[in-house]
Specification:
The complex is a heterodimer of chains A (290) and B (234). Chain A has 290 residues and is an all-alpha fold. Chain A has a domain of 199 residues. Chain A has 11 helices and 2 strands, in the order H-H-H-H-E-E-H-H-H-H-H-H-H. A two-stranded antiparallel ribbon of chain A has the order 1-2. In chain A, strand 1 and strand 2 form a beta hairpin. In chain A, helix 1 packs antiparallel against helix 8 and helix 3 runs antiparallel to helix 8. Chain A is globular. The two termini of chain A are 37 Å apart. The mean pLDDT of chain A is 92. Chain B is an alpha/beta fold and 234 residues long. Chain B has one domain: Rossmann fold (3-Layer(aba) Sandwich). Chain B is 39% helix and 27% strand. A 6-stranded mixed sheet of chain B has the order 6-7-8-3-9-10, sandwiched between helices. In chain B, strands 2-1-4-5 form a 4-stranded antiparallel sheet, covered by helices on one side. In chain B, strand 1 and strand 2 form a beta hairpin. In chain B, helix 3 runs parallel beside helix 6. The model of chain B has no long low-confidence stretch (mean pLDDT 93). The chains are: A mainly alpha (290), B alpha/beta (234). The interface between A and B is medium-sized, with 21 and 24 residues. The structure holds adenosine-5'-diphosphate (ADP) and magnesium ion (MG). The site of magnesium ion (MG) has 4 residues of chain B, from helix 1.
Chain lengths: 290, 234
């Protein structure tokens, strides 16, 4: 029982970051109809920015976190501006090929700049874990969880309550009519890609210091993000939020009760299960985007 | 106020509007009637900037808006209430109205306009927190009209406002349009329901295969034997 509670707690702590990854990807797909293969690289970018800022430049950990997220947004905006803007109206295959190219280019750039050696990032939290009865959790993970929840909350607020968020939802629901209302579809796409990328970078910046940063770390993150998005239903933010926690739980239980080698297999098992039993994902169409 | 000359519109290689010209004076209610596929919707899309024309000129209050963006054209005072209503289905009634005044920044003015619209359409007030997609066709039309008015337009383009509505709602819709005109807003309306449109209009244009074949006052066209035969079923 205690072991089960421990798994549950671990999953909860991890699920928030997975939800961030999933929300970012689902937003981009929902609004732009772009299958974003660079998502995992933005995750890696977030982790490497933490390494660069904290370990190489000596920037305060918390300041570095904010900067890493902002830089992720900036890189996302640049990718949209340079690559995707030219591809508006192109068919989905062309866009996918370009995004796969961008993914490979980004990953190799990381390897070139940071070498293939994994980098660890120091964190300022006490080494002794927080003990609650029979279960315990590291302070660094508590921090990751709290910040992830905060970012999820900010994202919901942005999408639901702000003018930009409303324009994003309107664009998702009916692009031509949104344009008739005066929405500049191009700017909405840039903003969406920047936001989605910032969320991926945030996930990487949060988990990088918990694990390590290495050039191919984005691949697994991307696979997980896709699993979460398929699980929650393409374009569904609540679906991606819930999906993140479900994947984290599946991984914890898979690793704990089957074999630790099963951790990373769980995302693929979930994708298969969802595609077989409920291909539209957990959330129905009407709940998409918002 | 609005002057369209030799307008050409294409979807790929297919010409949908060929050399269309029309004039709208301030304060008028002008209709565009014609069979399905005549190019009426396309004409409105070209005026509001959603579909850039392939040729011709569109002048609004002295400014050439032929190649202006939809945003710019809305800023100049042309609102477009599209065919099929096109409310944002998963946004609430209130959010739909907020989208209607997306470019406005005068908070007090917006609040006053919202209040006035809610008084005018109590059903929208009642449903303000409901998703627009759950409204009936008639309610969605009220919402689409209100949303277009939220930009405080000088000219409103209505595309088939009566399409698919119950007869009593159709009548109500035309009443609303009449009322909008009487408040000083210029109206261009596309209608399949030619009889109702001509009765309501100061002037009208008959479109066939992408260009204007006939024009005149509503009365003249109602009395025209050709129009009676083709569009009024007599
Ligand atoms: N999106 C489109 N793509 C290709 N052809 C179109 C499109 N929309 C309309 N058309 C064609 O353009 C012509 C005019 O259409 P439209 O302006 O919708 O006519 P109306 O509103 O008078 O019924 C028709 O022949 C129609 O088939
Ligand atoms: Mg039409």
């Amino acid at each position: 029982m205690d072991q089960f509670l421990q798994h549950l707690l671990n999953a909860l702590m991890l699920g928030g970051t997975y939800a961030l990854l999933g929300i970012g990807l689902t937003l981009i797909f929902g609004i732009m109809r772009v299958v974003n293969f660079t998502h995992g690289e933005l995750y890696a970018f977030g982790a490497y920015m933490m390494y660069a800022l904290v370990m190489r430049t000596g920037v305060n950990f918390f300041v570095a976190l904010v900067l890493a997220i902002a830089l992720g947004a900036l890189l996302g905006a640049a990718l949209e501006f340079v690559l995707l803007r030219r591809l508006r109206g192109a068919d989905i295959d062309t866009t996918m090929l370009v995004m796969i190219g961008a993914w490979i280019a980004l990953q190799n750039t990381e390897q070139l700049v940071w070498t293939g050696v994994a980098k660890s990032i120091d964190n300022p939290f006490p080494a002794a874990p927080l003990v609650i009865g029979a279960v315990s959790v590291g302070w660094n993970r508590v921090f990751v969880f709290v910040v992830a929840l905060l970012l999820i909350g900010i994202t919901y607020f942005l999408i639901q309550k702000t003018k930009l968020g409303k324009a994003m939802r309107a664009t998702f629901q009916d692009r031509d009519t949104a344009a008739l209302m005066g929405v500049q579809i191009g700017s909405i796409h840039t903003a969406t890609f920047a936001l989605g990328s910032a969320l991926a970078a945030a996930a990487g910046a949060l988990l990088g210091p918990v694990f390590v940063a290495y050039p191919s770390m984005g691949d697994m993150a991307a696979a997980k993000a896709f699993a979460i998005v398929i699980l929650g239903g393409l374009g569904s933010i609540p679906g991606a939020t819930l999906g993140g926690f479900i994947l984290a739980l599946a991984e914890e239980l898979g690793a704990g009760y089957i074999s630790s080698g099963y951790r990373d297999a769980m995302s693929f098992l979930l994708i298969i299960a969802i595609l077989v039993f409920k291909p539209t994902g957990l959330f129905a169409q009407k709940e998409r985007i918002g | 106020m609005l002057s369209v000359s030799s307008l050409e519109c294409r979807y790929g290689k297919v010409a949908a509007v060929r050399g269309l010209s029309l004039e709208v004076n301030k304060g008028e209610l002008v209709s565009l009637i014609g069979a399905n596929g005549a190019g009426k919707t396309t004409t409105l899309k070209a005026i509001s900037g959603v579909l850039p024309p392939a040729g011709g000129r569109v002048i609004f209050e002295g400014e050439d808006i032929t190649h202006a963006s939809a945003r710019r054209i809305l800023q100049l005072g042309i609102a477009h209430c599209p065919e099929g209503r096109r409310v944002f289905p998963y946004m609430t009634v209130r959010e739909n109205l907020e989208m209607g005044c997306f470019l406005r920044h005068d908070k007090p003015g917006i609040a006053a306009d919202l209040k006035r619209l809610f008084e005018r359409f109590p059903i929208l007030d009642e449903r303000r927190h409901q998703a627009a997609g759950t409204l009936s066709g008639g309610e969605q039309q009220m919402l689409a009209i209100s949303r277009a008015l939220m930009s405080r337009p000088k000219l409103v383009l209505f595309d088939e406002p009566s399409l698919g509505l119950a007869p009593n709602i159709v009548e109500k819709t035309f009443d609303i349009i009449k009322q909008i005109r009487s408040e000083g807003v210029t109206v261009v309306m596309v209608e399949q329901n030619a009889l109702a449109a001509l009765e309501l209009s100061d002037r009208a244009y008959v479109m066939e295969q992408g260009s204007v074949t006939l024009s005149g006052s509503g009365r003249q066209l109602l009395d025209d034997p050709q129009v009676q035969k083709v569009y009024l079923g007599g």
